[in-house]
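ok so heres the complex, two chains, lmk if somethin looks off
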Amino acid sequence: MRAAGARKVLWQAVAAGVCWLRALSGDDAYDRYLTRHAGAAGGPPLSRRAFYREREERKWSGISRCC
Amino acid sequence: MNRIAGVLLAVVGAVALAGIALHRHEPINALWIITAAVCIYALGYRFYGAWVAARVLAVDPSRATPAERFDNGRDFVPTHRWIAFGHHFAAIAGPGPLVGPTLAAQFGYLPGTLWILVGSVLGGCVQDMTILLLSIRRDGRSLGQMAREELGPLGGFAALIGTLLIMILLIAVLGLVVVNAMKHSPWSTATVFATVPVAMLVGVHLRHLRPGRILEGSIIGVALMLLAVWGGGWVDTHALLRGLCDWSSLPLAGFVIGYGWIAASLPVWLLLAPRDYLSTFLKLGTVALLAIAIVLLHPQIRMPALTSFVDGHGPLFGGRIFPFVFITIACGAVSGFHALVASGTTPKLIASEADVRLIGYGSMMLESFVAIMAIIAATLLDPGVYFAINTGAGVVGSTPAAAVHTISSWGFPVTVQQMQALARQMGEATLFARTGGAPSLAVGMASIFGSTFGRGLLSVWYHFAIMFEAVFILSTLDAGTRVGRFMLQDLLGHVYAPLGRTSWYPSVLVSSTLVVAGWGYFLYVGVIDPNGGVNILWPLFGIANQMLAAIALSVATGILVKSGRARHAWVTLGPLAWLALVTTAAAWQKIASPDPHIGLFAAAGALAAQLSAGTLPPQAAAVAPQLIFNQRLDAWLTILFTAILWLVILDMSRVCVRKLRGLPLSACSEAPYQAARP
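and the predicted structre for the whole thing:
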């Protein structure tokens, strides 16, 4: 019983870690964009490809890395 | 409960500091330093950081942040505090806190360690958090815009010029670090070169094959990078390939310059963006691994607390402990560059003002901890070995026998056999005169990782460390050249409008070439300098970076006074006064010191005298005119930095005096209060 509980906690920790890495790297950015876009007015959402292209252009046109 | 924890932390921290103080003439364990550091950070965060956030900055969680008000799912996105923390830390953590502390270890382990701890808790963390909050309150405006609006056009212009010049110096010195790590090292060269196609492969994967699957692409990329480390070892054993990858520093500098120029003109998705994903994962992973390994291994520190080089005659760079330890540590304690990130992408991610302490103050604490780990990695080496790796041939002599003789005569015994055995273990032909800090850090990291996770793999760990440093140095090089290009285009646009269009190809070409030529020049001179080049470039970069920090702190102080918080303005005024003192003292010595080991004009004069007397060996005489010109140019740059610094301080003082006398001022640009969503 205790082993099952410990396994569950471990899995939850791993899942939280993966979520954190996905969010940190921007892996889930498009999913979040779609969720947000669904509730808003306006035209159709950008495609996954177009969304990433725009995201990278924007990120690297300012200072986003330093010494 | 909180109070008990605070008292406990204070007691443990005090015991650790007492341990460091009492072990002055015997080897000390790194665990004392780690314990003292963790306690100081915890106390700083819990008490000083919290007090500054609540009382001085008046952080107000009920106030909507720009991320909430302008939420567009693209650049303004309310982000969970720990994710924003990761983003911000990944953005501010670069090679600076690895290189600076490694060089500053020539004074002994104590001065650098103390400044990293005190400087970050009272200066760097406060600067980063303050600028972050001020930018959040101004819709995410940049440091330059805030300087212009709150102080005047002079402040804005100074911030722009300062940033552009720092960028150029930073890229040059980092390029030099990579070149020195690769010279005559086929394994390192093959591994570093292989990271470029790996990044491009990941770029194509993320763009065309599986758009936006960043985690998947990064895992593939990191695996390929590790394979490149192993493959470099294979190249090293292959006679033909070994010869193809064995280069001296001048052609390597040519490669780096050519690479920088091409990379700046390539689309970001192909090289810059994918390599940055890889470097972020490597950075976070290696920092965590290093922390675990240092705690598990708790090595002995072999460097004395203070060396005789505090008197100014250090072999890595000239100058007394004051002010040069502060200039050299730079990013590990206070970094002006962070103010640019804290007023760039980060403020647009903050979901609540309550997160500002974790993200602004906390990220800088972690960065400072990286600097502590770097100083531990440098000082656990035998001091003789440390000096043999880090001192240029121009100082200790160009043969191994001459080098060990000179270094042993300083009181740090080392033998040729010891250095040869170490080089063999690390899979290198030689480790003599590998200036720049990266190789000695890699030897330190390899010893830590090797002792903790398996001793047989020392050479693989060494080249892993070199690859790790090179990957994010090249990231900074690409990203910096690109940003430098945008800034230059912005400036050139005032002269001829089409040059300001960032997508107009001739303008891209002209501005990229100018930026690359700027840092390429300093890199070239660094490479031909027999003293290693880093001895001149790093202090110059340090002065520039601390000047930018002083500009950021001036903007912060000016805004605090303007908004009626003069009573608490000492929080930023204190670090500002200290940085102004340190930067000006260092600049003064670099300009006016009659000692050619320190003063730039004096060094140029001495070299010119030797040249005209004909006492230089032919090889040195051939490069002397370029070195003389460069030292004079560096001296003038130092004068320019100091002038910019004092102009901004005077501008800030003008604003403060007008406010205190009740005279009219430009309006405060803070956005009006808007309640946050419940």
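quick notes: The mean pLDDT of chain A is 85. thats all i got rn
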